[in-house]
Design goal:
Blueprint (H helix, E strand, L loop, with lengths): L3 H10 L5 H7 L4 H11 L2 E3 L17 H9 L9 E5 L2 H8 L8 E6 L4 H5 L6 H10 L6 E6 L6 E2 L16 E5 L1 E3 L15 E4 L5 H5 L12 E4 L5 H9 L6 E4 L2 H4 L13 E7 L3 H9 L11 E7 L11 H9 L7 E7 L6 H7 L1 H6 L2 E4 L3
Parallel strand pairs: 1-2, 2-3, 3-4, 4-6, 5-7, 6-8, 8-9, 9-10, 10-11, 11-12, 12-13, 13-14
Helix pairs in contact: 1-3, 2-3, 5-7, 11-12
């Protein structure tokens, strides 16, 4: 039976992206306080050091959070997502807080940590702290992110962090890592990764190595924001039977690194590339032997302007229109122009007459 409080809880949940509104709700009544605090503390961000303005850095970035949790320990189970700088000082304090309900942890890497991660000195406290957090039984996703313009990182030294990973770990994201070979020995347990997001193909050899601490045979969602390499294509093959969502650049299809017909469960395809490569993308998808019985449900093309508009080369877009119109499971073909004031949506609809007639073609942006 739905109560009045249940309805209020649903309304408060709709405000989860407004800190100010949630704080106001927390002052109304005790039931409202509990629901508002659940959303207020669900994601906690610890700011990293400001290398451009050191005077703006807090002397103890975790101090305020520690004070709140020591005075209100009932908030600890609410913290499920944590963004922290990858420093020994911060991670040591986080480990002492007992955040045993964490589901997602994002490590932010900065300029000052290149020597820390690349160093040969063992042991290093930062690795022990990170390993302790990743080993929490509740952890489902781990991210390592380097900011824009920061140096690339070698993944080799990071392998030990995952030696005792939670078996619930299913999602991984590495941003700013350029190479690496897993260190022996092999991890005693290898979590089955279902979602993998990368921004470099140079990590292909790492994931193919026998000592790789991850099992990718059950991969469901793969995103690569970089040109596809042969090694990374082999990584993708590990999850060939289970892959349902693929995000890639045009070269993965145009250069035949990826054959869509080899992924029988693929339901969603996302391709990001310049407008001028639209015809090449269409040709690559057409020659991948997608049959009318394929499982693919949606194709999303995000086309950005790099100085040249798209054009239909040798009727390739028309051939793709004919091929996709026969796929029974396909319910959406979404083409987005970026920036939105560049492109020719009407001409594009005319290039896909069959998909447009079926009502599954959507064109966003364009003048």
């Amino acid at each position: 039976m739905t109560t009045i409080q249940d309805i209020w809880d649903q309304i408060i949940s709709c405000l989860d992206d407004s800190q100010q509104d949630l704080r106001s709700c927390a002052l109304v009544s005790r039931p409202w306080t509990a629901r508002a605090q659940f959303h207020l503390f669900r994601r906690v961000v610890i700011p990293g050091p400001n290398f451009f303005n050191p005077e703006a850095n807090a002397p103890n970035p975790c101090g305020r959070l520690g004070q709140i949790l020591s005075g209100s320990p009932h908030l600890i189970p609410f913290i499920r997502i944590l963004d922290v700088p990858f420093t020994t000082e911060v991670l040591a304090q986080i480990c002492a807080m007992g955040l045993i309900h964490l589901e997602v942890i994002c490590f932010e890497l900065g300029f000052s940590h290149t020597t820390t991660i690349e160093a040969d000195s063992v042991p290093n406290p930062i690795f022990g702290c990170a390993q302790q957090l990743i080993a929490l039984p509740s952890i489902e996703k781990v991210e390592f992110r380097a900011g824009r313009g920061q140096p690339g990182y070698n993944l080799t030294r990071m392998t030990r962090i995952f030696y005792e990973s939670s078996l619930r770990l299913e999602r991984l994201r590495f941003s700013g890592f350029y190479c690496g070979t897993p260190e022996p020995p092999a991890a005693p347990t290898r979590p089955r990764i279902k979602v993998l997001q990368l921004d470099s193909s140079t990590l292909g050899d790492y994931f193919l190595h026998p000592h790789c601490p991850f099992d990718l045979t059950q991969l469901v969602d793969f995103t690569l924001v970089h040109e596809m390499s042969p090694a990374m294509a082999s990584v993708l093959e590990l999850g060939r039977l289970t892959l349902k969502r693929l995000g890639c650049l045009p070269d993965a299809l145009v250069n035949r690194h990826v054959d869509l017909s080899r992924f029988p469960s693929l339901a969603n395809l996302i391709v990001v590339g310049p407008q001028v490569k639209l015809a090449a993308i269409a040709h690559a998808i057409s020659r991948s032997n997608i049959t009318p019985h394929a499982c693919i449900e949606s194709i999303i093309l995000i086309l950005f302007f790099d100085g040249a508009n798209w054009y239909d080369e040798d009727g390739r877009i028309g051939k793709l229109d004919a091929r996709l119109s026969e796929v029974r499971a396909l319910t959406k073909v979404d083409i987005t122009f970026q920036p939105r004031n560049v492109g020719d949506p009407q001409r594009l609809r005319l290039a896909f007459p069959k998909l447009d007639a079926k009502g599954i073609l959507k064109v966003t942006g364009g003048s």
